[in-house]
Amino acid sequence: MAAFAGRSCNVIPESIASDAGVAGAGVLLSSTVTAFLVIGMAASLILHDVRWPRKCIRNPSIVRRKLLSGYSDQQILVGIGLQSVGLVKSWQLSPYHFFIICMLSLLSMATHNAALLSLVNDFKRDWVLRWMRQLLMFLNLLLSIVYGVFLLQAKIKDLPDTLPIACAWTRPSDTTRLGGLDVVATVVVVALNCLIFGLATWYLQSRRQKSRAFRVVQAMGIVAMAGIAFGATTRAYLLSQAFGTPDVLLSDEGEKTWSFGQLLGMLMLLLPVISIIEIKRGDASIAPPMPDDVYSSGEDSPERLVGRELAPMKA
Asked: What is the DSSP string of 14-32?
């Protein structure tokens, strides 16, 4: 590996090959559609609960809650998977593709947190599932910090764009960029991820929340997650070959081609339709949400509520 690393880092190619699996048109579009679909459903669910707090217990919006629950699990795992694969392939990925993965993982984080904002009382029913989610959120944070350190090292050493991102740790550099907008932006993103994790942890684990403060946090949180999703999407689109202008010379236009993998990603967007039909037909059900005053009044705890039977509700 050392010989391979030295050889790849000393020779600077003029261009790099495209990678449709990272920055292809279908990958970006499917990620974007999923993110804003989830954020839209989460916002509508929060608005529904605010306007009709008692009605939401009798009519708990089963379809949206069921879909959001599935999307929440999916998005946190997508974020962890994207970053894990990116780190494993750090000797093959250029800073350009590495940054695209960073933006997609940031998008999945915002999507997961949007679902968390609207389904927090559902997640509190089972302390095992709640702490499992907390562990996944912490793992996602660690990976995002490692990603930020990689990108920061590449910016400081002024790594050529056509070299693998891992060369930032082995290749000596004559120039050092300790400032600049890119370096500051990377530090801000890492700090923002840590702040969001802290707030999400408090939101998920807190048992006593006043209803008004709870709703304010929900409203501010959903706006913040929508802003982060919009910013990450815009940055990825403007930088990608499929929709914008890359900051590195690509030897082909494979990221603009709608290959089988790109079309498959778009077709996967139809899966929620099947879930909606199953819920409407009564083949799947979800327990109704817990009233907010259960947690704010301290009458009971989520752990005690686990053993209670919750009758399936019809859509």
From this structure: S-B---HHHH-HHHHHHHH
Sign for the CA dihedral angle at 78, 82, 85, 87 comes to negative
- The 10s digit of each residue's pLDDT in 188-239 is 888 998 999 998 888 888 766 555 677 788 888 899 999 999 999 999 999 9
The phi and psi torsions of 16 (rounded to 5 degrees) equal -130, 160
Query: What are the angstrom distances between the C-alpha of 24 and each of 11, 13, 21?
Result: 27, 22, 6
b (16+ CB within 10 A) / e for 222-261: bebbbebbbebbebbbebbbbeeebeeebeeebbbeeeee
How many residues comprise the chain? 315
Amino acid identity of residue 77, one-letter, is L
CA 117 to mean position of chain CA atoms: 14
Q: Where do we find the tokens 């250029």?
A: 94
Given a contact cutoff of 8 angstroms between Cβ atoms, the answer to whether 165 and 22 are in contact is no
Residues near 206 by beta carbon (within 8 Å), at least 6 away in sequence: none
